[in-house]
Design a protein that fits this description.
single chain; mainly beta; 7-stranded mixed β-sheet; 4-stranded antiparallel β-sheet; globular
Length: 124
């Protein structure tokens, strides 16, 4: 059974950094496409970053240069390093996975499996 568990969210001041994690269970993350999404209150869920089976990445323009997606294959864990955080980055952050053929999608319909989310709050 595929399970995703996010952790590492919290509160930080603008300009600070956070590194959120997503531990994967039930499959090897090297065999899937994975991504990070976020949803702020009253807004639609948006794709933040994705990573393919070959380690290639895609990052949304809104966070480019500030956020980095990576994975540790030995720990079977996905990460999102967030630097230079802004108040508008405040949201629930979710990781997602899919066994589809093509990776690097940033649309939520590209992913079948989802975690419960971890809250990130940035104060200005």
């Amino acid at each position: 059974q595929v399970q995703l568990r996010e952790s590492g969210g919290g509160s930080v001041q603008a300009g600070g950094s956070l590194n959120v994690s997503c531990a994967a269970f039930g499959y090897d993350i090297r065999t899937v496409c994975m991504g990070w999404f976020r949803q702020a209150p009253g807004k639609r869920r948006e794709g933040v970053a994705s990573i393919g089976r070959d380690g290639s990445t895609s990052v949304a323009d809104s966070v480019k240069g500030r956020f980095t997606i990576s994975q540790d294959n030995y720990k079977n864990t996905l990460y999102l390093q967030m630097n230079s955080l802004k108040a508008e980055d405040t949201a629930m952050y979710y990781c997602a996975a899919d066994f589809g053929r093509y990776c690097l999608g940033l649309a939520d319909y590209d992913y079948r499996y989802w975690g419960q989310g971890t809250q990130v709050t940035v104060s200005s």
